[in-house]
Amino acid sequence: MSVTAVAVDNPTSQPSNIGADMNGLLTGLSGLRAAQAGLDITAQNIANSGSEGFNRRDLVLGQKVMSTQSQTGNGVEVEAIRRLRSRVTEELITRNISERGFAEARLETLNSVETLLAPIDGSLRDRLSQFFSSLEELSARSGDRALRRLVVEEGTQLTGQLNRLSSLVQELRYSVDLQIETAVEEFNSLAERAAEFQIDVLQKTNQQESLNVAKDEYERVVNRLADSVDAQIDILQGGASIVRFASGSAVIGQKPPKLQFDIEGDDAVIKIEGRVGNLRIGSGRLGGLLDSRNGILTQFESDLDTIARELAQAIDSVHAEGIGQTGSFETLAGVRGLTDTTVPLSESGSPFPLTDGQLQVYITDTATGVGTLGRVDVDVSVDSLEDVADRLGQIPNVNALINTSGSLIISTAPGYEFDFTGRVETTPDQSLVTGSSAIRLEGKFGGTENDTWRFEAVGSGQIGQAEGLFVDVRNSEGDLVTRLDLGRGYEPGSRLEIDSGVYATFSPGDLNAGDEFSSDIVGKSDTTGLLVGLGLNTFFAGSGAGNLSVSEALVDDPARFANGVTSEGSDSAVLNKMVAVRKSQISDNGSRTVEQSLGDLTALIGADTESAQGVTDNLQLASDQLFKDREGVSGVDPNEELVRMLAYQRQFQASSTVIATMRTTFDELFRII
After folding, report:
1. d(CA 408, CA 198)
2. What is the pLDDT of residues 466-513, one digit of tens each?
């Protein structure tokens, strides 16, 4: 009866209990679902613990409310599946990837260049040393034919090594070009994927885990892009994102740009298809490859060319003004040409410097041995090579023409020979000499400056007999060079040294006070650089590391190697000057020798390589630390995940127990009813 009374007196009490019991059931069910989601996320974390770029997930749980009018809790619900990541760390990792790509590309190139200059047998340094050593050996025995051939052979080995290095640089450049092409293709492919993932991310804003997967993949693609260029994700207002690269001047949005590789002049450039202008890519592997090609390799090639050109200019400028055992020339063709023979020489494309000055040609009458000087004045801002050829042709018994390759060919009339030794005229103009003594000069001035000497008789009388008979020799400034004593004690016809290898001979006869004559004195036959620029009687042909060679004329006949200003084998005047080139400071604006310049280049490449290795190592250390930091936030620790899994399992069990208890309660309640 009491039970019935309860039912009648309080008819709403049972439904109220049932409602409370329903809340308990729903709480258990929500806990069960949350635990199941947690188990799924934990399993996913463990499964992806070794996946590149995977960000650990966790659940964001919140109180579940059934009615907006009642804030009574009804268990929990999964509000979000969160990716655990540090935006700052991720941005630093992306930047580090770009910087490492740049540094590693440069290091690869520098290592290759350093290998080319390694100081081993047969290296450029070794060949240069052997060449100078062969010159020194020949200077001690200038008449030795075998040593002449050795000099030519060592010169050939030296130029061959320069050619080889230049060729290897070209091969490195070609290899880098292929790598740039590959990097551009990879970028274009990755840019398309990045654009696709941007669209994918926008389409999955309501699909929590699918969105997380898309974001992970998107960031992985961006990091791969960062290996090629200086790429960074830029989050826009509203949550959308783009990728900026090329110092921020270019963007990968939902429509990706397409890069293209091109060559402009000597440089490799990267452009966006359909856009004007070149991209400035300052980081990433693509940036490092561009810097390697346009910077490291171009500079190294330029340095090699400079060394080759400085060596050739120094040796050739000396060799051109000498002659070998075969003597002077009847015909001589230049081994270097100008690109345009009609424009002023300063605009003619000569790889060697041409300056205002004079070119002295020494012409010998082979029948009498009488030598005369012909002079051509040159103004490089006005005169063309054709002008120079015309003026050479105006010198008695000299002809000059230009061939189709822009080279100058000089020849003489039958019975005459020429050279550029700059020896003194044997019979200077004596029209102002009233005495009967014939004067003859000979020799080659050992100084470096050109001048005109004036000879004037002091006193009168017979050569070798008169007291107080002298000839004063003065330079163009009026300074006394020397006084020649032609009075008692001088034997007519004997040589008197005037100065630095120039001699005078006075035949029997007399001189009168005031008799005078003058003679051009040549310290350097060519002050214009034309002999070197045109390759006239030079040791080398070519002008740079890639095309420098020993003149074919010397290879065919080493006797043509110019050792002196005469054809006598013992004459080593020119050879000694070539030997002196080794210690001459002709490089780096006159501050270093050629060998020092090569040593500096080797040391510089070594220092740059060491520095690049240090930068790469430091970036790798930074990368390791950044990834450790990332692992601390985004990484998956299987042990920790197993602990979480155990917790979710217990939550699942507890929720299951709640549901089971509620089921028992309901079963009992309905049994009573």
Report:
1. 68
2. 999 999 999 999 999 999 999 999 999 999 999 999 999 999 999 999
